[in-house]
Amino acid sequence: MITLDGVSKSYERGQPAIDNISLHIDEGEFVFVVGNSGSGKSTLIKLLLKELEPTSGIIKVNGQTLSKMKRRKIPKYRRGVGVVFQDFRLLKDRNVYENVAFAQRVIEKPGRVIRKRVPEVLTLVGLAEKYRSLPRELSGGEQQRVALARALVNRPDILLADEPTGNLDPKTSTEIMKLLEEINARGTTVLVVTHNREIVNAMKKRVIRLRKGVIVSDEEKGIYHED
Ligand SMILES: Nc1ncnc2c1ncn2[C@@H]1O[C@H](COP(=O)(O)OP(=O)(O)OP(=O)(O)O)[C@@H](O)[C@H]1O
């Protein structure tokens, strides 16, 4: 599903942000990528979304080699990967329903599909009753649920989450993680970047740890070791 082969990424100055990483993530896996600030986690997400090009190495996602992808295919590729971020990134002046429906409108889904699919996915994240609320009327956890619904509405094979609980309290963070686990159980491959130790240790999933752009451990049912 996701394969990196000898991937490095250097910015203009300093050490490589990603330094000769090779890894494989199978279809249906749930993986945490952990590491201190500056270890390269966000760079990895950007490489997977083809927002950045690697300095060297090969990245394959869903059978496609990203470096060979035609420019005009990139938007479609990105829409096939669900993404959520720490800061939710919702449209402030649109309600919950519209925030989610928007992801379908941009790919020109017919109205009847949108009217069916949006309530379905809002039910999945537990927000069916708040479909008319604006983002500012929601708690942080609810806003992240909307972001998740938006990421899932087009049924992506892969969900990338960059520090999805970074702005949330511990209880809400656990709820969001349980939701990610459920999404994974329904077949989506999930990759979560975080430095939330408690969450990682509670979930007992595969844990890939980065330090200065290098994989220092990769464990099934892992824990987040002290650095
Ligand atoms: N646009 C950029 N230009 C130059 N250097 C960058 C750029 N983005 C990131 N870096 C550097 O690359 C390294 C890895 O950064 P990255 O953002 O991937 O780390 P991270 O693990 O996601 O950190 P955090 O947990 O703080 O988000 C850092 O040394 C950072 O300073």
UniProtKB/TrEMBL annotation:
Q: Which UniProt keywords apply?
A: ATP-binding, Cell cycle, Cell division, Cell membrane, Membrane, Nucleotide-binding
UniProt GO BP: cell division
List, in alphabetical order, the Gene Ontology terms for molecular function in this entry.
ATP binding; ATP hydrolysis activity; transmembrane transporter activity
Q: Topology with regard to the membrane?
A: Peripheral membrane protein
What the entry lists under Gene3D superfamilies is as follows:
P-loop containing nucleotide triphosphate hydrolases
Q: One GO CC annotation, please? A: plasma membrane
Function of this protein? Part of the ABC transporter FtsEX involved in cellular division.
Q: What is this protein called?
A: Cell division ATP-binding protein FtsE
Q: Name the lineage.
A: Bacteria, Bacillati, Bacillota, Clostridia, Lachnospirales
